[in-house]
Every structure is written in C-alpha cells, then in structure tokens.
C-alpha cells in the first residue's frame, strides 16, 4: 500500500486543485492520501466527492482520502506546525480555531500590504492576493511573495522572501496565531490525532515533543522530504521512545523536488505508517 499523509492544494499554498491532487495521486500509484492544507479543511470534501465519482465512472478502486489539516502556530518566537488527522470537522472548538486562524492571516496580510505600500512603494491589494488562492482558502507568505514579484517589486519569489518575508524585514509582521499547545488540545478533543510536523525545521524539537505530549500530542512526522535517512531514524527513535506513532508525507506543494516528490511517485513512505495511524485512531476512539 502506498500512501502520502501530507499534501497541500490551492486552498492554501499548493498549486494543484483537489481534483488535480486526486488525479496525480492515482497516476503515482497511491492508495491513500491526506490533504493537510494550512488552517482549513475546505479541499477535503471536494477531493472525496471527486474520487468517488472517478471510481464510479472508471470502475477502478477508489482513492482513500483521510481528513487532515496543518495548523500554523507560534511558540517562543518560532513557527511550529501541527498536523491533525481524523478530527471531527464539525466540532465547534475546531471550527472556532480555524476561524481564528483565518482572521489572523487576514490581519497579518493587511498590515504587510500597508507597510509595503508605505515603506517600499510596492502596491499590492488584498483582492490580488485573494485571487491567488481558492475561495475561502488560506492566504499566506507564498502568496504575498508571489504578488510582490508580479507587480515588479522583486525579480523572483525567492528574492521577495529574502528581502521582505522574514522577521528582520521592516515590512514583515508576525502573525498573531495560537500556540502549538492549543492546537494540539483542540485537535485531540475533536477526536483527532495531533502530530508534530517536519521537526527538522524546529531547533529544539526533541524537548518540545516531550512537552507537547502533556497536551495530547500523539505522533511525530519522521518521514519528510527534508529529512535525510539519518534524520528519519533519529525522529523515529524519539517517537518510539515516547510511545508516539510515526507519520510521514511529501509535504507536496508543487511538482518539483523542492516542494514534494512522494505524490509524484518517488520515495514512498512505508505501508506500516498508514496501519499505525489507523490503529491509533481506533484506540483513541475506544479510549474516549
């Protein structure tokens, strides 16, 4: 069984529609995927309905799509991402968290737009940014960087990041988001499995993983395109010692080596990763 448990669509900072993700996953020979857009779950029902229709029309096996999300949080001035799987998407606290996260994204973006205009003479609009993401989707730094480049503020998206999209920039404003502790608790209380995403990106990940376990953390994303085989082994050992499950995925955004390859048919994660996730969900449901 081939799976990818970390995929983004045009409802956050991915370049493919939910339908295109399903087509691409099937072409790559995947059996199951999880769509984990940042701070929203809008793509999930679209992908599920499309996969069902495709299976019915073609007579082929239906691609399994797991409900997922990736919550962007801030703790000790560092950004930490928390993945969630199988949470009740109608849970009131979960929905409130997503609403709050979207509000914070809009406020951050509006402040950055204002500062770009005032300090740098770079004129981009909220309407332009909204056009770069699917309706209701999560506007983020990639969209701001792209918009800056589109109006001639920089020569490339990379230049936009290097010049404007970082904490030392005079026009960048940090998002007023929730803590990882809150995200973990809300996902867990909504019947979901909270997972520490791509720990390679976080300096003191091992310490934080132990801390977050007190709030309901249930897994560590050991398999990731940024993780070398040695890192996979390292984070897997941390998870195993702590009694946490191991997850993994491509963190797919676009079809190139820097933005995720698993969904493109490269470096599939082990089948037992999926089995452990399903087992964890069943055990949590029984415990509740």
Q: Give me the number of helical elements.
A: 10
| Overall radius of gyration | 19 Å
By DSSP, the count of extended strands is 7
Mean pLDDT: 93
Strand order of the largest sheet: 1-2-3-4-5-6-7
Task: Provide the CATH topology of the largest domain.
Answer: TIM Barrel
CATH fourth-tier homologous superfamily of the largest domain: Metal-dependent hydrolases
Helix content: 40-55%
Strand content: 5-15%
Largest sheet: 7 strands, mixed
Q: First CA to last CA: what distance? A: 29 Å
Strand-and-helix sequence, N→C?
EHEHEEHHHHHEHEHEH
Q: Tell me the count of domains.
A: 2
- The rough form would be described as globular
Which terms would index this structure?
single chain, 288 residues, alpha/beta, TIM Barrel, 2 domains, 7 strands, 44% helix
Model description:
It is a single chain. Helices cover 44% and strands 15% of the residues. The protein contains 10 helices and 7 strands. Helix 1 (18-27) crosses helix 2. It folds into 2 domains: 3-96 and 176-287, Metal-dependent hydrolases (TIM Barrel); 108-163, no CATH class. A 7-stranded mixed beta sheet has the order 1-2-3-4-5-6-7. The protein is α/β, with parallel strands linked by helices and 288 residues long. It is globular.
